[in-house]
Amino acid sequence: MASGSIRIAGLTKRFGSFVALDHLNLTLEGSKCVGFLGPNGAGKTTALKLLTDMIFPTEGECEINGISVQKERKRALADAGVLIESPEIYPSMTPNEALEMVADLRGVPASERKDRIQAVLAEVKMADWGNQKVGRFSKGMKQRINIAAALVHDPQVVILDEPSTGLDPRGMAEVRTIVRDLKKSDRLIFMSSHILSEVTEICDEVALIDHGKLLFYDTLNNVTARVSEGHGSVDVVFARPLPPEVASGQIRTLTGVTGILALSPDRLRIGFDGGRAIQEKLLESLVGMHLGVVSLTESESALEEVYLSRISRGD
Fold first, then answer.
1. pLDDT tens digits, residue range 220-241?
2. Final residue before a domain boundary, out of 224, 248, 273
3. Which of 38, 57, 151, 275 has an alpha carbon 20 to 30 Å from 136's alpha carbon atom?
């Protein structure tokens, strides 16, 4: 199987006066996993829906394997496996029955369907559950069947919209393992996520989007290299939830602070410039503000540091 390609050119989507996607340009080629990263509301799902012709663009065009999605939808999507916003499966059906239906819709020859269904169930670690009713499954098991449905016609390009969102920790780990294993089968995987650790764990490259605009696209190795010495980020835990205006106002204006990411109501990730000297002053300032600081630990992810600085600047 030859690896696939995705080309997005000038893609724009407006809903009235609101610009959900703003002239997005992105070209992906080869066998790899590309993380489409950004905060909630950044425009990730809108872009994927445009890429799969679920909604129509205001401007621009998308291609899958060199075929225009807007001009030749059926041909363009014939070799793409898509999972967006986790569809429900009839609880009275078994995975074998559900995948038989999808395989038929996807044009898999009748003589090949049984083997393809068994292959994709094995790929998502559900081979022993093919004849069980889906209504008995956990949310994570249902999501694995949804991924199997996206793979049943053996596509070159796989498009996944936050596939682990809403799952418990075990379900998230299972889905991430499956996506990571998909890279071994010479596919181009384009996966949206707002979880930095997920992208770092699974993906080879990352495209960062915010407010409908692409901020950068690069390999994870290059992201690490671009973080120069003296930049850093720390996780700060507070004894009680912080009012949002404290994080965006008082803490954001402290010397050296380059960005702030709320991990939870009582936990912040703070990016800074200036090395150890600034880190020391930052801790002193936070303690002096009497906000109930209970711990401060260094964050080691280069992607997190770039994310913090670029998202905060909004460039």
1. 877 765 554 556 778 899 999 9
2. 224
3. 151
What's this model's pTM, rounded to 2 decimal places? 0.77
Question: Could you read off the pLDDT of 243-263 as tens digits, one per residue?
Answer: 888 887 889 899 989 888 888
Both tokens of residue 241? Answer: 């939830």
Cα(80)–Cα(49) distance, rounded to whole angstroms? 13
Category of 2 on φ-ψ map: left (φ > 0), alpha (ψ -120 to 50) or beta: beta
Which tokens sit at 220? Answer: 């994870």
Domain boundary pick from 224, 250, 267: 224
Which range among 76-90, 120-134, 145-159, 292-306 shows the weakest confidence by mean pLDDT? 292-306
Helix axes 139-151, 95-105, angle to 10 degrees: 30
Whole domain around residue 107: which residue ranges? Answer: 5-224
How many other CB atoms are there within 10 angstroms of residue 253's CB atom? 8
Are residues 126 and 233 both part of a single domain? Answer: no
Question: Do residues 33 and 178 share a domain?
Answer: yes
Of 37, 36, 49, 41, nearest to 20 (Cα)?
Answer: 41
Per-residue tokens: 68: 């225009």
Domains contained in the chain, number: 2
Q: Any idea which residue has 């003296």 for tokens?
A: 230
